[in-house]
Amino acid sequence: MAKLTFKTDLCKGCGLCVEACPKKILKIAKDKINKKGHSPVEIIDQEQCIACAFCATMCPDCIITVER
């Protein structure tokens, strides 16, 4: 099973990873704010992740790690 981890304190909440995810299991958190004042990305359903790494490839700040 794949595992996604995020450096949420560095996330700008741009949403590029959310749009890139073919399984649509990422979202921008509406109830969290990081140290930079942005709403970070979060995963909705870890078990649905197929480890395609599209999200990590699209992230301009390289905050996503995909483990297989």
Q: How many domains would you count in the coordinates?
A: 1
- Percent helix, as a range, is 10-25%
* Strand-residue proportion: 15-25%
Q: If classified by CATH, what would the architecture be?
A: 2-Layer Sandwich
What shape does the CA trace take?
A: globular
What is the string of helix and strand elements?
Answer: EHEEHE
The helix-and-strand class reads: alpha+beta
Largest sheet: 2 strands, antiparallel
Q: Give the integer mean of the pLDDT values.
A: 96
State the main characteristics.
two-stranded antiparallel ribbon, globular, 68 residues, alpha+beta, Alpha-Beta Plaits, single chain
Could you characterize the architecture of this molecule?
The chain has 68 residues and is α+β, with helices and mostly antiparallel strands. The protein has a single domain (3-67), classed as Alpha-Beta Plaits. It is built from two helices and four strands; from the N terminus they run βαββαβ. The longest helix has 5 residues, at 16-20.
List the SSEs and their pairings.
Layout: E1 3-6, H1 16-20, E2 26-28, E3 41-43, H2 54-58, E4 64-67
Could you give a short description of this structure?
This protein is an alpha+beta fold and 68 residues long.
